[in-house]
C-alpha cells in the first residue's frame, strides 16, 4: 500500500478517543525519573548497567517523539533529553498532547497526584476530557468515611459517576482473576469492611470488598475497565489471564466490560470479545512498549474479536511522550496491518477505512455515550 | 513466489481430506441465523449493535465465498444475503461443497440433527464421507439403554465403529483436561452410571464416565479426536490447554490422538505432536475464524510439529460457506506460508510441494486408513 | 535491506558467546541415533512412519549444514547422511564448531558423558570454553558424599565454581516452578537429605533439596541458568511457565538469572526481563527447532525485554550440526528481524548494529565476566 492511499491518509488524520489514560507530568524531574518511566514492569530503579532508552519504547521515543520536538529521528538520547529539559515539562506536555490527534481523553484518576488532572489535560490538549473512576480508590475513601461501608461506597460512587463516564478496577494487582468473583452477601461485606478498617484501611486486598466493588460497578451500566495482563511486577501476571473471568462474564449482564492492555493474553481477550456481547478489548500500554513490534500485536487484536469490540487507548502516564506515542504507534501499526490486508486482497480499502473509524472512535463513542456530551 | 509457480498450482489443485467436519444446513433460515453462525464463541444472539459480517470470518465470506456465488469480491452483505437466499440452502450447499476440492469428509455426527447426514454430504459434494463417532453421544445412548452401562457403551461403540473411521471427545466442554484422566475401575463406572441415570442422564459431566469413554476409544486403535481450545463459551478455555493432557498422553499407547482447532494453544499442541509418536494436530475452525490472519496461524502450526503430524480440516457446521471457506483459506494460507519459506531460501519448492501433500491428504489417509475404503 | 548492508556484514562476522551449550558427539552412531537427535521432545524412538528430517530442524540441517560439508543446499537426507558418515564424527564436529563463529562456549556438563568435555570443545572449535555447573548433579554427588549433606553440597559447589562461570538448574524437569521456592531451613534440608539417601539418592525430585540448591546458587553471585519451557516430554511444560517464578525473582537479589529456551513462554520471559534488573533470557534450543520460523521467535524476544538483557545460545547437544546451526539460524533470524526494523524506519542501522553486539556477546561477557579470563 502506498503512503498516499486513501487508507493511509485516513489513518493519518482520524481523530482518536483515548479511552484509558492518566495524567502527564507538569513539573521538572531528573533524567533517571524519565528513564525509569520508560520501563513499566520494574518497580525498582533501573540498574546502573541499563538504560530506559535501550528498549523498543526507548527507540520509539527517539524515532517518533524527536521530530515532534524539532529533532532528527533516532537522535542521540542525550540530545533528546537536553531538548525536552530546555522546553520544560508543561511545554513538552502541550506539544505532545496536541500532536496526538486525540479528541477525547478518558482519564483514570486513581493514581498520580503529581500529574495533570482531568481539566488540565483538556486545557493542555485542546480536547475534551472525562473521568474514569477507580473502584479501589472509592473503596479506600468509603473505608475512611463514617458509618456503613457499603452505603458509603455506593454514595461516593454515585456522586462521582454523575460526571464520570466509566469505572476501572485493578483487581489484577490485588490477587488476580482466579477464584470466586460472585457478588458477596451484605453481611460478608460488613464483616470484611470492619476487619479492613481495624487494620487501618491500607491497600485493599480483601476479595470480598473487591468483589463488592465490581458488582456495584456492573449495576451502573457504564463501562467497567479491567486491567488485564502487562503492568508492573506487583501484578500476578499468571493470575490475570482474562480466561479466569469466564464465570464472572457469564453473569455480567449488559454492562460493557473493557479488557485493557491484554498483552500477552490478547488472543484470550479477543476470544472473550467474540464470546460475550458486552466484552471489549484495547491496546493501551502494550502498543507503546512494543514499539517496532506493535504492528504484530495490533494484528493479533484483529483475530477473534469482532471489529465493533476493539478500542484505542494509550494508557499514557507520566511523560507526555507516552500520550502521543500511543497514537503515533497505533496509526503506524494500523496502517501496516490493514494496509497489508488490503494489499493482499483479503480486505477492501473501503472496509479497512470503516474499521479504522470503529476502532479509533466509533466503538468508544458508542459505549461511553460521548456524542453530544460536554466535558 | 509468483502465483504461476509449481507450488502455487499444486496448492490450488490438491485434493483435501477434511478430517473433521459436521453437517451443513439443508433448509432455509432467516438472516440472524446466518449472522449468528458467523460467531462461534457467543452462545447468545448477537447484540443489536453488532453484525456477524464485521469480523475476519465475515470479511472472508464476502471475499472468498461471493465469487463462488457469481458475485464480486467484498460484495455488500445485503447483496450476499439476497443471493444465497435466492439460490436456496440446498443449492448453496451443493455449490460450496463441490467448490471445496475435498475428496473425503470425516463427519462428526454428534451435533446438528437438522443438518446434512453423512450420506447427504457425500451426495451433495460428490466426494466420499465417513463417520466420526462422538463419545459423549455414545454415553448418552448407553445411559438410556437397559442393563449394565459399560457393556451397553462398548456394544454401541463397537457397532458404530464397524463403519466409522474414528472417535471424538468434547471433554474440553465437560470440565476440561485438568486433573486425573486415568482409566477408572469398573466398580466406579457402575456407580457413576447409576448416579447419572438417577439424575436423568442429561448432558454428561461426570468425570468417571468421561474417562471411561476416552479409554474405550483408545482401545479401538482408530484415531481419537479431541476438541482443544477455541469453541463456544461453554468451553472452559483455560482448562482446555492441551498441556494438561501430558499424563494422559504418556499412557495413551499407539492410538492416534488428533488435537482439533488448537487456537490459542497451537504452539502447545505442536510441541505435543513432536513429543508423542501418536499425537497429531489440525487447523479446523480456527482458520475460518481468523480469515486474513489465517496464514499467521498456519505458520505457527509449522513450528514444533513434525510435518507428518499435521492435518487439514474445516470443522464446517451450518452454512456450507464454512465447509468451502476452510479449504479456500487453507490453500491461501499454505500458499503464503510455504511460498514465503521457498522465497527466502529456507525450503526448496520440491519439499514444500511434498509437505502440502502430507498435510492435505497424506497424513490423514495414513491414520484413518482411507486408501481403498468405500464409503 | 540488501545483503551488502553494513548490518548484514556485521551480523555475518560478529563473534558469538554461546552461553549455554553441551558436548557434541565424538564417536560414530547409526542413522536412527541422528534422526532421534533431531527431535527434542520425544523420549521414545521415532515411529516407523516418521523421519527426523521432516521437520523445521531437519529442513534446516539440509539447508544450512549441507553447504558446510560441501553439499548443495536442500540435499537429499540420504546423501547428507552418507557424507557425514564418510567424514566421521570428530571431523564433523571440528568442521561445524569452527564454522559457528563462536569465541566462547559456556558448557553445561550435567548430561552426556559420551560427548565432548569442556577442554575438547575448546580444542575442536579453536575457541575458549568454560563450565556451567548443574545444581542437580551437585546434589547427587553431595548425597553420595559422607557426612552432612548441606556441607557436602556447599563444598562441592564451591570447589567447582573456582573455575566455572555459572550454575544451571533443571527444576522445570523436577516438578516445575509452581509453588514455594523460598529457602528451606537447615533442619528441613537435613531431614530431606536423610530421606533421599535412604531411598538411594536417585533422580532428585525433592522440593526442599531443589530449593536449597537454588538458594546456594543465588549466594554465589554468578549467573544462574534456568531451563524454561521447551524440552523433552518429561518436563511439566505447563508448570514451567516462568511467571510461576515471580515470587522467587522478587527475592532473588542481584544474581543474574538467565531464562533458557523459553518457547512458548518467550513473551512471559521478556516481561520478567523488563521487570527485574537481574533477569535475562535466551533463544537456545528454540531457534534450532523452529528453523524457518526462527525469525518470528527472535522477533518476540525483542518485545518487552530490554536489549541489555537478551543473550545468544545454541543449546547444542549431540550432533555438532546443532552447535553450528544455532549460530547460523540466529544470524539469519537477527538479520531478517533487525533488517526489517531498519527497512521500515523504526530503527536506525547504527542502533541495530549496536544491539547485535549486545546480544551476540556484550551482555554475556558482562554478566559472566569473560573479559580477560583464560579458559
From TrEMBL, chains A, B, C:
Task: Extract the Pfam families matched here.
Answer: Amidohydro_2
Specify the Amidohydrolase-related domain's residue ranges. Answer: 219-370
Per its UniProt record, what InterPro entries does this chain match?
A: Amidohydro-rel (IPR006680), Metal_Hydrolase (IPR032466)
Tell me which Gene3D superfamilies the record gives. Answer: Metal-dependent hydrolases
What superkingdom does the record give? Bacteria
A single Gene Ontology MF term assigned here is: hydrolase activity
* Protein name according to UniProt: Amidohydrolase-related domain-containing protein
Tell me which species this is from. Mycobacterium simulans
Amino acid at each position: 500500500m502506498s503512503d498516499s492511499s486513501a487508507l493511509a491518509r485516513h489513518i493519518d488524520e482520524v481523530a482518536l478517543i483515548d479511552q484509558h489514560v492518566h495524567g502527564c507530568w507538569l513539573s521538572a524531574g531528573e533524567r533517571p525519573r524519565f528513564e525509569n518511566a520508560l520501563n513499566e514492569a520494574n518497580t525498582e530503579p533501573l540498574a546502573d548497567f541499563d538504560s530506559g532508552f535501550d528498549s523498543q519504547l526507548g527507540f520509539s521515543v527517539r524515532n517518533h517523539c524527536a521530530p515532534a520536538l524539532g529533532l532528527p529521528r533516532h537522535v542521540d538520547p542525550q540530545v533528546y533529553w537536553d531538548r525536552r529539559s530546555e522546553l520544560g515539562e508543561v511545554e513538552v506536555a502541550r506539544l505532545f498532547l496536541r500532536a496526538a490527534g486525540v479528541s477525547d481523553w478518558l482519564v483514570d484518576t486513581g493514581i498520580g497526584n503529581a500529574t495533570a488532572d482531568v481539566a488540565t489535560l483538556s486545557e493542555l490538549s485542546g480536547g475534551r476530557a472525562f473521568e474514569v473512576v477507580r473502584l479501589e480508590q472509592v473503596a479506600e475513601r468509603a473505608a475512611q468515611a463514617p458509618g456503613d461501608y457499603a452505603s458509603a461506597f455506593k454514595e461516593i460512587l454515585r456522586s462521582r459517576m454523575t460526571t464520570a463516564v466509566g469505572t476501572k478496577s485493578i483487581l489484577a494487582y490485588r490477587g488476580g482473576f482466579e477464584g470466586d468473583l460472585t457478588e458477596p452477601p451484605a453481611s460478608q461485606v460488613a464483616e470484611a469492611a470492619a476487619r479492613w478498617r481495624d487494620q487501618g484501611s491500607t491497600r485493599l486486598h480483601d476479595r470480598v470488598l473487591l468483589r463488592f466493588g465490581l458488582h456495584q460497578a456492573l449495576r451502573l451500566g457504564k463501562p467497567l475497565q479491567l486491567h488485564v495482563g502487562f503492568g508492573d511486577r506487583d501484578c500476578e501476571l499468571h493470575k490475570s489471564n482474562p480466561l479466569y473471568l469466564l464465570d464472572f462474564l457469564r453473569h455480567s449482564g449488559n454492562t460493557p466490560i473493557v479488557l485493557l492492555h491484554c498483552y500477552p493474553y490478547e488472543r484470550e481477550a479477543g476470544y472473550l470479545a467474540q464470546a460475550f456481547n458486552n466484552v471489549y478489548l484495547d491496546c493501551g500500554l502494550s502498543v507503546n512498549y512494543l514499539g517496532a513490534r506493535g504492528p504484530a500485536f495490533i494484528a493479533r487484536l484483529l483475530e477473534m474479536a469482532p471489529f465493533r469490540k476493539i478500542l484505542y487507548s494509550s494508557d499514557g502516564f507520566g511523560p507526555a511522550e507516552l500520550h502521543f506515542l500511543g497514537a503515533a504507534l497505533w496509526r503506524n501499526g494500523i496502517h501496516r496491518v490493514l494496509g497489508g490486508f488490503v494489499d493482499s486482497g483479503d480486505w477492501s480499502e473501503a472496509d479497512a477505512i470503516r474499521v479504522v473509524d470503529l476502532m479509533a472512535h466509533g466503538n468508544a463513542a458508542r459505549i461511553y455515550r460521548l456524542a453530544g456530551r460536554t466535558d
